[in-house]
Amino acid sequence: MQVDRLSGADLSDANLTGAQLHEDNMASANLTGADLTDANVTKVTWDNTTCPDGTNSDDDGGTCGNNLS
User: Fold this and answer.
1) Would you say 52 and 33 are in contact if contact means Cβ atoms under 8 Å apart?
2) pLDDT band at 2 (very low <50, low <70, confident <90, very high)
3) Structural domain spans, the chain
4) How far is CA 66 from the centre of its chain?
5) Per-residue pLDDT tens for 24-51?
6) What radius of gyration do the chain's Cα atoms show?
7) How far apart are CA 3 and CA 67, in angstroms?
8) Torsions phi, psi of 10, nearest 5?
9) Per the CB 3.0–4.6 Å rule, which of 2, 3, 16, 51 could disulfide with 67?
10) CB 65 within 8 A of CB 41
11) Can you point out the beta strands (E) in the chain?
């Protein structure tokens, strides 16, 4: 079941170390500078998400999975 609680959230510089984000909807969220070390990001929706490294998920194959730091 996908959760929409983080869609559009401003999580810039947030400490999300070890967060359980499995199946979360991160569409249009801002994760610039966020720490996702050891976070579970399987089956996350990354639509138009600003990744921790400042790139946009839409420009990176629809994911931030390779741009978490």
Assistant:
1) yes
2) low
3) 1-51
4) 11
5) 999 999 999 999 999 999 999 999 999 9
6) 10
7) 22
8) -95, 100
9) 51
10) yes
11) none
How high is the pLDDT of residue 63?
93
- Three-class SS state of 69: coil
* CA-closest candidate to residue 60, choices 31, 17, 35, 18: 31
Question: Is the Cβ–Cβ distance between 28 and 47 less than 8 Å?
Answer: yes
CA atoms of 36 and 38, how far apart (whole Å): 6
CB 67 within 8 A of CB 60: yes
- Alpha carbons 44 and 66: distance in angstroms, whole number: 13
Core vs surface per residue 30-51: b (16+ CB within 10 A) or e:
bbbebbbeebebeebbbeebbb
